[in-house]
Design goal:
Shape: globular
Number of strands: 7
Helix content: 40-55%
Distance between the termini: 47 Å
Number of helices: 27
Mean pLDDT: 91
Strand order of the largest sheet: 3-4-5-7-6
Bound molecules: zinc ion
Strand content: 5-15%
Structural class: mainly alpha
Largest sheet: 5 strands, mixed
Low-confidence stretches: 1-40
Length: about 725
């Protein structure tokens, strides 16, 4: 059942993810239904486990009106289960307390998994209402469990004698995990503090929901409307077609609409020649949810960081970041600050050097302006062409979506792990675009179901992410149902979907999360798949990105959509040669966001600004960290930084933290022969199948045979020369 504050639904799934910085659905605590449920009206598809293969959700039967009754009944059943465990006359045992909890709350998990997945990918007004209504109720429900004194006394008694219980390693770890979860949630607080904590949690759940709903609405409202085609000079025909289609879908026939993606940077900026339009797009992006009006998030942020700081203090931590990081592989604020501070100066120095290259071109063209954030992408493409004779647009015809999926993503997984894929058209989906594949092991045994939801929509949050509809557990007898989400603009009818190189890499990245979920082979649902520390969860997915550009894989999928011609070697060489290009920008914009996240969460409640002070706080934090370089704004500004108002608070550093392990592992694969079954099996056995059932860094050592080394990361990002 959902018993962690980071849990299921409301909070964990509120965060938004983007390429190549995305995330899985974080520590999964929800789980699939497989237990007995009371006889109930058959009309509600959540009341009983889905009868479909793998307990695949009955998307064709689920109606918006089903959610609230399922949440209510799920919480009631779960309360009864927890009361029975907490109030039992039997002495507490591992089985009757902790395993019993692992088996509880199945209905609530079923509805939470589906609801919060669809609330992210295919929402509507009715669902947004349900989300706003349920967020504080679910938070209160979790507190009812986590702050239940009798229940904690039983868990503590088991924890205290764990050495004498003759438990296997995974079970022993589960005892420790439960104890830690409860203590971190406030189980040791006095009654008055517990009451205050419950109020804080409920308010934070409401704020988190409001933040994500404001952002979705504001992002849609701020899509840039263009009156005439001549203003779009520079955009590809495909992109113009997509802008025209987007206008039609908004009843703006004859006009063009450029929707905003979730990051500060926007794809159209790379090719639009019209500077005024570029500035309009950039401003719309950067000012999202902070310029007043109905969907302004400044007050939400101010309230949230203050409450987080207050809660951290109650729980005995100096600040929210200290509270969060104590449970991550990083371990402390100092460790994270040290890594970020080490990377910032060389990253900004590289970005300034890149800006100088850009400025030369602007000057040479007679532009009488200094490079700004709105110009960076446009001129950096010119520099790229000049230095590498490479135009990103040249690549897209070689990256047709179905080809990338089947002959790239799936092909690499087959070569490494022997798994095969068969499309299932018999299972219901929530939109016609969604595809479902059954995944088989090399010996033909069933492994998992995999959902592919790659297209952008106005009712889908930005970025890319993975989630589990059904997590694996041998205790519950469940096999995984995992989904991948991207935001690829849908082409006009009849046109092929041609991906950018970045989108291709993102597809491999998200599939790395999917593999982590599908290969999971653990007993307890608490440890399934991606239920690992947040600063570890991005590691397997980042490793999987390496196969996108692996010659044998690339040769297999990068074929011209019309002619079938392979991507020319010369073009490929240019791609490889340009890999470190613009890394000063990429690293600086990432670090800007990561440092902002830490700044917001390394304060006391008294230091939290009011709504009016949010932007000033942001500016001061960037300046203090040495990343206040206007042409390179943070990848997310505070008011549209979904990661940190949802499940990734104080955790955005995790991408680069994971990248240390990733870059190191890429070296391991290269040193051991690359794309081989032996290497795949080794990665699967030692790491991908283990979920959170063992210490994360121990898993890494089991795989790589050594300690993490930061050098490959610095080399990859071109930061070696200025970093000691
Ligand atoms: Zn990710």
């Amino acid at each position: 059942m959902a018993f962690r504050p980071a849990l299921a639904g409301a909070l964990a799934l509120a965060f938004s993810l983007t390429s190549p910085l995305c995330a899985a659905d974080g520590p999964a605590t929800t789980r699939p239904g497989s237990g007995k449920v009371d006889a109930a009206p058959a009309a509600n598809p959540f009341f009983a486990p889905s009868p479909l293969p793998y307990q695949f959700p009955q998307f064709d039967k689920i109606k918006d009106a089903d959610y609230v009754p399922a949440f209510e009944k799920g919480m009631a059943e779960n309360r009864a289960e927890i009361d029975a465990i907490a109030n039992s006359d039997e002495p507490a045992t591992f089985e009757n307390t902790i395993v019993a909890m692992e088996r509880s709350g199945l209905l609530l998990e079923r509805v939470s998994r589906v609801f919060f997945a669809l609330a992210g990918t295919n929402t509507n007004e009715a669902m947004q209402k349900v989300q706003a209504e349920m967020a504080p109720k679910l938070s209160a429900h979790n507190d009812l469990i986590l702050l239940n004194g009798k229940l904690f006394a039983r868990i503590q008694s088991i924890y205290d004698k764990r050495d004498a219980l003759d438990l296997d390693a995974e079970s022993r770890r589960l005892v420790e995990r439960y104890y830690t979860d409860f203590v971190r949630a406030g189980a040791k607080l006095g009654d008055a503090d517990k009451t205050r904590l419950k109020a804080i949690n409920a308010e934070m759940a409401t704020l988190s929901t409001r933040f994500s709903q404001n952002l979705l609405k504001e992002t849609n409202a701020d899509a840039v409307v263009v009156d005439s085609r001549d203003q779009l000079d520079g955009l590809s025909e495909d992109a113009i077609g997509a802008a025209s289609a987007a206008a039609k879908s908004r009843n703006l026939d004859g006009k063009f609409v450029i929707p905003l993606k979730n990051t500060s940077g926007q794809p159209a900026l790379a090719s639009l020649k019209n500077r005024e339009l570029r500035q309009r797009i950039m401003n719309a992006s950067l000012n999202r949810a902070s310029k007043g009006g109905e969907f302004d998030n400044r007050a939400v942020v101010a309230a949230m960081v203050k409450l987080r700081a207050e809660r951290a203090a109650m729980l005995g931590y100096a600040n929210h970041a200290a509270y969060v990081l104590a449970d991550e592989t990083a371990g402390s604020v100092e460790a994270v600050n040290k890594l970020l501070a080490q990377l910032a100066p060389p990253a900004v120095a590289n970005a300034r050097a890149e800006a100088a290259d850009i400025q030369k071109i602007i000057d040479a063209e007679g532009g009488k302006f200094q490079v700004s954030a709105a110009d960076w992408a446009f001129y950096t493409e010119k520099v790229r062409k000049q230095k590498f004779d490479l135009d990103e647009e040249q690549l897209r015809p070689y990256f047709e979506m179905d080809n990338v999926l089947r002959n790239g993503v799936f092909y690499a997984a087959n070569k490494l792990y022997g798994i095969t894929f068969k499309e299932r058209k018999d299972l219901p989906v929530y939109l016609p675009d969604i595809r479902v594949f059954e995944v088989f092991n090399e010996d033909g045994s069933h492994l998992a179901l995999f959902l592919v939801d790659y297209y952008a929509r106005s009712n889908k949050r930005g970025g890319a992410w993975a989630n589990a509809y059904v997590p694996q557990s041998t205790l519950l007898g469940t096999s995984p149902v995992i989904a991948n989400h991207l935001n690829i603009p849908k082409p006009a009818d009849g046109e092929p979907t041609l991906m950018t190189y970045e989108e291709v890499t993102t597809a491999f990245h998200e599939f790395g999360h999917a593999l982590h979920g599908m290969f999971s082979h653990v007993k307890y649902p608490r440890f399934a798949g991606t239920s690992v520390p947040r600063d570890f969860v991005e590691y397997p997915s980042q490793v999987n990105e390496m196969w996108a550009a692996w010659p044998e894989v690339l040769k297999n999928y990068a074929k011209h959509y019309k002619t079938g011609e392979p991507l020319p070697q010369a073009l490929l060489d240019k791609v490889k040669a340009s890999e470190k290009f613009n890394q000063g920008f990429a690293t600086t914009e990432y670090l800007g966001a990561a440092l902002l996240d830490q700044a917001w969460h390394q304060i006391t409640a008294a230091q939290a600004p009011s709504a009016d002070g949010v932007l000033a706080f942001e500016a001061a934090a960037l300046k203090r960290a040495g990343v206040d370089f206007a042409p390179v704004p943070p990848r997310y500004r505070t008011t549209y930084f979904s990661h940190i108002m949802g499940g990734y608070s104080a955790g955005y550093y995790a991408y680069i933290w994971s990248e240390v392990l990733d870059a190191d592992s890429v070296e391991w694969f290269k040193a051991h022969g690359g794309l081989t079954r032996a290497n795949g099996d080794h990665f699967r056995d030692t790491l991908l199948s283990r979920g959170g059932s063992d210490d994360a860094l121990a898993l890494f050592r089991n795989f790589s045979g050594g300690e993490p080394d930061v050098k490959p990361l610095l080399e990859r990002r071109g930061l070696t020369e200025s970093v000691k």
